[in-house]
Amino acid sequence: MKPLEVAQRLRASRKSAYQWHQLWQDGGIEALVSRGPSGSRCRLSPRCLEKLAAYLEEGPAVHGWVEDQVWTAGRVATLIGREYHVSYSVSGATRLMHWLGFSPQVPVRRVAERDEEAVKMWKR
Questions:
Q1: What is the distance between the terminal CA atoms of the chain, rounded to a whole angstrom?
Q2: What is the pLDDT of residues 43-67, one digit of tens each?
Q3: CA-CA distances (angstroms) from residue 72 to 11, 59, 99?
Q4: C-alpha dihedral over 9, 11, 16, 20, to 10 degrees?
Q5: Measuring CA to CA, how many Å separate 12 from each of 1, 2, 21?
Q6: Closest CA to 81 of 50, 73, 40
Q7: Whole-prediction pTM value?
Q8: Longest CA span, the chain
Q9: pLDDT over 70 at 12, yes or no
Q10: Do 52 and 80 meet the contact criterion of CB atoms below 8 Å apart?
Q11: Which segments of the chain does DSSP mark as H helices, in order?
């Protein structure tokens, strides 16, 4: 089968089909075996991930965030840094939270001068 036909059938780009064809020519079927998911590997061990999930279950107040009971991705990244001395970005912490079955929350921030009565009137 020609690479263009492979690209159409698999809904892949022509470039990918030509790369696969070249791999096949150079190394046979073994060269086409998946190398697993791309991207960087998790920097926490499975045991650390279990402990992190337990920390998240305990809630943010136990770990110093007493103003609200919300796990934000920034807080989780900070917690990972404190506990494991590993730096995670906010987006990396978000992906890790989703992988552990949690979702990052955005804290509600209200202005101190907020007039609740005016808000109710406006909504009506």
A1: 67
A2: 999 999 999 999 999 999 999 999 8
A3: 38, 11, 15
A4: -30
A5: 15, 13, 13
A6: 73
A7: 0.61
A8: 74
A9: yes
A10: yes
A11: 3-10, 14-27, 46-58, 73-84, 90-100, 116-123
